[in-house]
Amino acid sequence: MNKSISGRYFRTTALLLVSGITLLGLILMYFCVGYFRTESENTLLTNVRSLRDNFSTVSMEDAEQMKEHPYVEQAVRVVANATGSIFFVTDNYGKILYCSDSSGAVDTSRAVSSKILNRAFSDGEYAELGELSGIYSHSYYTAGCPLINDSSRIIGYVFASRDAASLTSFLESIFSAFIISAGVMLLVSSILSIVLTNRLANPLRRITAAAQAFGNGDLSARAPVGGDDEVAQLAVTFNDMADKLEAVDASRQSFMGNIAHELRTPMTTIKGFVDGMLDGTIPDDRRDHYLQIVSQEVGRLTRLTHSMLDITKLETGEYVVSAVDYDVWETVSSILFAREQQFIEHAIRLTGFNPVKMLVHADPDLVHQVLYNIVDNALKFTPDGGTIDISVTENLKQGFVTVAIRNTGEGIPADALPYVFERFYKADKSRGLHAEGSGLGLHICKQLINRSDGRIWAESTPGQDATFLFTLPCGNPKPPERSKYARGGQGAK
């Protein structure tokens, strides 16, 4: 059975209210009974004390005189009428001499037990809730005390009683009022609880509906956000998660599309040339030429596969970084010397090449791959007769070394700069078509630099130049010295 939060909240609130009201009622009844009993006993004791004080001024020597004395009947009747209680007077042995009750509630044929009389004698007064030795047929509040004459001699006992049924009536009134009040309170609380639980549950229902829609494939589904409480924070968190998942899905779709495109183009070329050779469309004297093209396309597929494997290793954390302190100019120099022939063939001028030992704390292989990709990218997009500038600067205060590679050419439009490090973002969108690129080199550079605790970014003046910069942590500082790769001069042509 599906149990909603609002239902559980309402049941919990109702249970707490009923439990609290029940406990409050029991406590109220306990104190009411105690208060009523104490009040009744105190009132009765006050009345019998008053009679006792009046009798202390009367000259009577024994019970017979008390029985015949007109003062006794008069005094008892006046007090009984005034207080609404039953009064009776006994002799020293508990025999009832006079009783104010005319309803028959008091069994005058029975005597008060000696145990009660002894208690009244020893304590000076007596009080109980009961039948008073069988004198009453049901429970009464009773109080009594000895009667003392003007000679300070005990001549009997006086008792006053009040029917305990009045307590029942009192409690019934209290209980009725309590039940009505509790019912009204429960009704009001239930209405408020329903309203509040709905206000609490409705945002959760909307978040649930958005999550279900999102799970069913509607990646645009979002939860409405209202307020600044925990539920609103949950909605914001859900929306942030949905945005990221939508971006990941879009990236995945773009990734799959780009992969399909990158694979389809060389494979179509390869298939076309191979089929042409097989069916005789391509003459024998041209086969070597087209086999060379097929070899280039296979190489392109191989590079793409290697790049994809590199990205997978980087994003899954399989790429192990072995950072050491070494001279970054060694890597820069080795890459430039390896590409020297391209500089010469395209009359590209190299400036800024002035290697002074610059220690960084990084993985040499990782830095080599980054620099190779950036230099290769610069060579692709530098026009014949253009310039590539290399600079390595150190910021000891902030603890990093900055490597910058600038090349002249078309540059990168401002709206394209934020995307140049994304997967499959190819230069043809901003810097002219270049068929050899897969759009993964700069993305790999970004992943590698991030793994090295550095930062990489691009700057450009459209139509003039483009600069790629990245930082690496400084190595242990050592006295500067000329690198063994230094050749002097501005560079090679």
UniProtKB/TrEMBL annotation:
Residues 258-476 form the Histidine kinase domain. InterPro entries: HAMP_dom (IPR003660), HATPase_C_sf (IPR036890), HATPase_dom (IPR003594), His_kinase_dom (IPR005467), HisK_dim/P_dom (IPR003661), HisK_dim/P_sf (IPR036097), HssS/ArlS-like (IPR050398), Sig_transdc_His_kin-like_C (IPR004358). Residues 472-493 are annotated as: Disordered. It is an enzyme of class 2 (transferase). It comes from the Bacteria. GO terms for molecular function: ATP binding; phosphorelay sensor kinase activity. It is found in: Cell membrane. GO terms for cellular component: plasma membrane. Keywords: ATP-binding, Cell membrane, Kinase, Membrane, Nucleotide-binding, Phosphoprotein, Transferase, Transmembrane, Transmembrane helix, Two-component regulatory system. It is a multi-pass membrane protein. Residues 198-250 form the HAMP domain. Its EC number is 2.7.13.3. The chain crosses the membrane at residues 12-36, 174-196. It holds the Pfam family HAMP. Its main location: membrane. CDD domains: HAMP (cd06225), HATPase (cd00075), HisKA (cd00082). It catalyses: ATP + protein L-histidine = ADP + protein N-phospho-L-histidine. PANTHER family: SENSOR HISTIDINE KINASE CPXA. This is histidine kinase. It comes from Anaerofilum hominis.
